[in-house]
Design goal:
The radius of gyration is 14 Å and the shape is globular. The protein is mainly α. Helix 1 crosses helix 6 and helix 4 crosses helix 6. 72% of the residues lie in helices and 0% in strands. It starts with a helix and ends in a 6-residue tail after the last helix. Bound molecules: protoporphyrin IX containing FE (HEM). Protoporphyrin IX containing FE binds next to helix 3, helix 4, helix 5 and helix 6.
Length: 138
Amino acid sequence: MTPEEINAVKTSFAKVVPIADQAGLMFYEKLFQLDPSLRTMFADDIEPQSKKLMQILSAAVNGLDKLETIVPVVQALGLRHAGYGVRVEHYDTVAAALLWTLEKGLGPDFTPSVKDAWVKTYVLLSDIMKASSKGAIS
Ligand code: HEM
């Protein structure tokens, strides 16, 4: 990713941070709307999960310009996800829910270049997660 793209992700994520609680809940609401069968993979109370997601996203966004610090964390996350029963195709549904949430949360600030930078970020993170769980998931 270029420094401009990293900057676009950091700047836009900073605008989501003040509404992180709502954004996290909106994300899961959208995810379960897109694929209701995913609901049973998560605990009834989605709030703690929502906070964990926002925390790791924040750490990943902060680490985009020093990838060596986040790669081991994201690899371990991917391996745990295989244990949660997560499959490769689920990553596309999560991508759709995440981009939708960013669009809702950022409004006009979710410009095409900001969206493109987020797509690259998600592909980067999810590729590491999928690779680390290769063989463990299908
Ligand atoms: C970039 C993509 C993703 C990120 C950053 C992410 C992040 C997280 C985090 C931080 C946790 C907390 C537990 C832990 O650290 O192991 C978690 C749990 C979980 N994630 Fe993800 N996740 C991603 C993709 C997915 C996908 C594609 C699915 C598929 C539906 C998924 C399903 C789950 C489930 C089922 C749990 C455990 C919930 C529970 O124990 O109640 N995640 N995720």
